[in-house]
Automatic annotation (TrEMBL):
Compartments where found: Lipid droplet; Lysosome; Secreted, Extracellular space
Lineage: Eukaryota, Metazoa, Chordata, Craniata, Vertebrata
Gene3D superfamilies, alphabetized: 3.60.21.10
Top-tier EC class: hydrolase
Protein name: Sphingomyelin phosphodiesterase
UniProt remark on cofactor binding: Binds 2 Zn(2+) ions per subunit.
Pfam annotation, one family: ASMase_C
Length: 592
């Protein structure tokens, strides 16, 4: 199996993952479940099983020739154009950009024609188990008794943590261009200028399919520098814009370098920044080969530059594992450690996982080792990453959940981004499914993509003293109100130096004693009973820019989604009036 899968995976990754999120209607989320959301008219299930297998055998043979690979790319481009998946320029560029990596990954995969047809036509045509369940090995050391967390004594020290995610800087952003173009990303030099009744790109940013100009990123950094002091910073990736059809390695590395140095410049040399790798850092987007892939197709071009730019913040050992697989661990303070995971090794859109999806880079087994060592030393651990665990491949998500449950007394914070929204995922004990033991906090994006205000997060964590829980006590979300920033009162011109304003404080807004897992579980129950609180959450989730309330089936499904950090549990949310498709597409926005 070679060509059709290459073409289809490319369409699913490019035009599926850059759109709102896929439906979790089956327990196993694979790359190809995204195909239903791309608008493709062709249905593989209309093929008979023998026809499908014959087609894949023929194409397997065809791809033995490099010349035929050229035909494959051209054919994929034509299919993209004829099915109106994107504008012609985007279709041709994206198929050429993705061509070589896709084909190399698929040539190393183990899929046979019968497996491909089982996947595309149905289980009656064969067996497809490339994502079969797998388990990491936990040590034989018994889990320590769990002590429910209690609030710190009044006056206890707190750590103030700046959290940045999903910058998505667009070098081609141009004020005055059209904000509702036909391409996946607008407000750019080649987007054209708006005609009557079409919106135009604002100076500081735009509600629409647009990313941010560099001036807005610099304004953010100036504002957070003035709002210090910060104990440290978590930064969970996604630097480049969503122009994924026209990116180059040179461009990606340049943007990585510029943003890393700007953060260092504005926050100063004394503030430690702990980064994580986003799925947009690579090109093609989502392309993260496991470490056993060597040479030009490996990720060493990216990890090595990250290591160079981030070395002022990271230890020598952290830089070593970063170069190896894009993950690392470091002691932040005595008694507190950070683990930065490369969540691209769990992502359904990472086509390199076709080669091997079983604990890529042995990252989760490494995590177990780190957590066991921390448990023995009495350390607390914060985990940071880009993609939330509930959006990962099923087996990876289950193993991660299992690990966090085992080390719940050690892992006291989980911090992610990626969805561009302000939300969270709950973790419940595997034995007592009514006992909440953890929370994955998902912070809002800096970018406006799609129809959002720019935003950032501040966490207040139990501080640096003996016996500290290191748990999240409270958090704040700040936004740049684009309506006000782009139109100064009186003149109507952009504000020269806009200020980012507090949108809300979590404990104050929701009348909570703390943000411990039990408190957030109680909050979800309040959402069910008191619609005012839920609509407030809905407003905050969209960073203060939402067009309509979330009622009835929308609310039921949204609450269901908050209740689990486990991917396979998301399927349980699909029974609510069949609404999950629309909700997830429109509100969970898992963008590339």
């Amino acid at each position: 199996m070679r060509l059709p899968l290459a073409v289809l995976v490319s369409f699913s990754v490019v035009f599926g993952s850059c759109s709102p999120a896929p439906d979790p209607e089956q327990n196993r989320l694979t790359f190809f479940e995204h195909l239903g959301h791309t608008g493709l008219k062709f249905n593989w299930r209309n093929l008979t099983c023998p026809t499908c297998k014959a087609l894949f055998v023929i194409l397997d043979i065809a791809l033995l020739s490099d010349t035929n690979e050229e035909h494959v790319a051209r054919t994929a481009g034509e299919v993209c154009i004829r099915l109106h998946l994107a504008e012609e320029r985007v279709c041709r560029s994206i198929t050429e950009l993705f061509r070589e990596d896709f084909i190399r990954a698929l040539q190393r995969s183990l899929l046979l024609p019968r497996e491909a047809c089982a996947l595309l036509v149905g289980p009656s045509c064969g067996k497809y188990d490339i994502y079969a369940p797998w388990n990491v090995t936990l040590p034989g050391i018994p889990k320590p008794p769990v002590t429910p967390p209690s609030p710190p004594k009044p006056g206890s020290p707190q750590s103030r943590i700046l959290f940045l995610t999903d910058i998505h800087w667009d070098q081609e952003y141009t004020a005055g261009t059209t904000a509702d173009c036909k391409e996946p990303l607008c407000c750019r030099k080649d987007s054209g200028f708006p005609s009557w009744r079409r919106r135009e790109a604002g100076y500081w940013g735009t509600y629409g399919k647009c990313d941010l100009p560099l001036r807005t990123v610099e304004n953010l950094l100036e504002n957070v520098a003035a709002a210090g002091a910060w104990d440290w910073v978590y930064w969970t990736g996604d630097i480049p814009a969503h122009n994924i059809w026209s990116q180059t390695r040179t461009q990606q590395l340049s943007e990585l370098t510029v943003i890393s140095r700007l953060i260092h410049k504005h926050l100063g040399p004394k503030v430690k920044v702990y980064p994580a790798v986003g799925n947009h850092e690579s090109t093609p987007v989502n392309s993260f080969p496991p470490p056993f892939i060597h040479g030009n197709r490996s990720s060493s071009w990216l990890y090595n530059t990250m290591a160079e730019e981030w070395s002022p913040w990271l230890s020598e050992q952290a830089v070593t594992t970063l170069r190896h697989g894009g993950f690392y661990t470091m002691e932040i303070q005595p008694g507190l450690r950070v683990v930065s995971l490369n969540m691209n090794f769990c992502a359904p859109e990472n086509f390199w996982l076709l080669v091997n999806s079983t604990d890529p880079a042995d990252q989760l087994q490494w995590l177990v080792h780190v957590l066991q060592e921390s448990e023995l030393k009495g350390e607390k651990v914060h985990i940071i990453g880009h993609i939330p665990p509930g959006l990962c491949l099923s087996s990876w998500s289950w193993n991660y959940y299992h690990i966090i449950n085992r080390y719940e007394s050690t892992v006291t914070g989980q911090f992610f981004g990626h969805t561009h929204m302000d939300e969270f995922e709950m973790f419940f004990d595997e034995a007592d499914k009514t006992r909440p033991f953890g929370v994955a906090f998902i912070a809002p994006s800096i970018t406006t993509y799609v129809d959002l205000n720019p935003g950032y997060r501040v966490y207040y964590v139990d501080g640096n003293y003996k016996g500290s829980s290191r748990l999240v006590l409270d958090h704040e979300t700040y936004i740049l109100n684009l309506t006000e920033a782009n139109h100064s009162p009186g003149s109507g011109k952009p504000v020269q130096d806009p200020k980012w304003e507090l949108l809300y404080r979590a404990r104050e807004a929701y009348a909570l004693p703390s943000l411990f897992p039990a408190d957030l579980d109680t909050l979800i129950q309040t959402f069910v009973k008191d619609d005012r609180f839920f609509q407030k959450f809905w407003y905050f989730k969209h960073k203060g820019h939402v067009s309509e309330p979330c009622k009835d089936a929308c609310k039921t499904t949204e609450i269901c989604l908050l209740r689990s950090g486990l991917q396979e549990d998301l399927g349980k949310c699909t029974g609510h009036h069949g609404f999950v498709k629309k909700l997830i597409r429109s509100t969970r926005k898992i963008v590339c």
